[in-house]
Here is the input.
Amino acid sequence: MTLSVRVPAYAKLNLGLRVLYKRPDNYHELRTVFQTISLADRLDIAFTPARKTTIDIAGTPEIPDNLVGRAAHAVLEALKIHADIRFELKKRIPSGAGLGGGSSDAAAVLLALPVLAGKHLPPAKLNAIATRLGSDVPFFLYGGTALGLGRGEELYPLQGSRVRHALLIAPAVHSSTADAYRGMAEQLTSIPLQNKLDSFQQNLWHDGAGPAENDFEPVVFAQYPELKRIKARLVRLGARSAAMTGSGSALFGVFETAAQLDRAQASFPDEKVFRVSFLSRAQYRSSWTRALKSHIKDHNIWPPRSEHAS
Here is the structure.
């Protein structure tokens, strides 16, 4: 019997991102605050038990080495089952923009497939798979607002603030994360480590109301000056906080009033612009339980658990 479901895969912002140093394992030690937002991809999944595994991914656009397929294989291997799985991915989150679209799509598979299979994967196992797939993937297993340490995979929930609305600008620029890290190598020693930690901590204590500092900005802005101009315009338009997210190239401005947001949106007629709201952890989970309501019994269990799982 085939079971089908349609689930959301929400984007994220980095409300501040400090790169502290390069670690012995060649990864970089980070401090960041993740925030899920209302912009989302849509993933349709059809799951059929089978004697051998086949995975088909259709979508717009087609993505090479799609994390959706890798996540599906990892789940089936962990559950020790085979299945015929058909995915249809409707992309709304711009790729290569620092919004975590691919990571969120992968996490959506990790959350939904065990439910459709009628099996249970413990949170620790889901986290381990997510971490192997990418540093941002574990965050999307939980959503809301979270402090990210290490590579970003070490997560601690934050209360989050009152409902916020933001303007998201996604220029037609692809910023390479690898290039951004290479470009900032010299800058890692230009600002004392303690200064970075102090400013990051102060922003947390002030509910994220301070400048959302992103250490990738100087490197990426040097390569793409138009991004620097967009940030400056958001500030002039009255953004309470404005920054690039991730390693770019998307930028966001948080505004206090709808009138400010309207004015800001009208100021970017030639850019891809999204009005977005911040999603709390409760809102994130509620959207998931609604999507899976016909397959789960207890809506208070997280991650979602099939009514048939032992």
Observations:
- The chain has a mean pLDDT of 91.
